[in-house]
Amino acid sequence: MKKILHVGEYVKGGVYTYLYNVLRYQKNSEEFDSVFLALSDSKSEKEFPICKNNIFFYKYKRNPFYIIKAMLFIKRLINQIQPDIVHVHSTFAGIIVRIPFFFCSKKNIKIVYCPHGWSFLMETSNLKKRLYGLIEKILAYRTDLILNISKHELVNSEPLPK
């Protein structure tokens, strides 16, 4: 049996709906023994279809101090739970989870990343788009599987390493 940890940043709207359905399926699946969720304590929905003891909230805002705190929290949680799979939802959660794995072993943990909209496709300057694309490309090297939730995401993920 496998343990899976889902990690999100601000889980609401479409990401919430997607994650809620995935959690409901995995909770009832014979493939997973335990399903866990970690998400920010602010700007996130609080009701999910898994055991409340398996839901962890971390303090978070989009600034360097809180990003580092979130990285440390998630790293400790991974060490405590020892999941087989860490499924990451959204860009900032992708940063929080994957950057630490450049500095320590992933052991046998599989990292699954679902961007829920590529950051380099946002309406912003070309410089920022290139920077976001470079960051995603680098982080893809610490990712075992990238899940695109639309054909649009899939087509635009072509430059990333497989």
Radius of gyration: 15 Å
CATH evolutionary superfamily: Glycogen Phosphorylase B
> From the 3D coordinates, which CATH architecture would you assign?
3-Layer(aba) Sandwich
Provide a count of the helices.
Answer: 5
Number of strands: 6
Number of domains: 1
Question: Roughly what is the average pLDDT, rounded to an integer?
Answer: 86
Based on helices, strands and strand pairing, what is the structural class?
alpha/beta
| Helix and strand sequence | EHEEHEHEHEH
| Biggest sheet descriptor | 6 strands, parallel
Please describe what this structure looks like:
- It is built from 5 helices and 6 strands.
- The model has no long low-confidence stretch (mean pLDDT 86).
- The chain starts with a strand and ends in a 6-residue tail after the last helix.
- Helix 1 links the parallel strand 1 and strand 2.
- The longest helix is centred in the middle third of the chain and has 18 residues, at 64-81.
- It is globular, with a radius of gyration of 15 Å.
- Helix 2 (64-81) packs across helix 3.
- By secondary structure, the protein is an alpha/beta fold.
- The chain has one domain (2-156): Rossmann fold (3-Layer(aba) Sandwich).
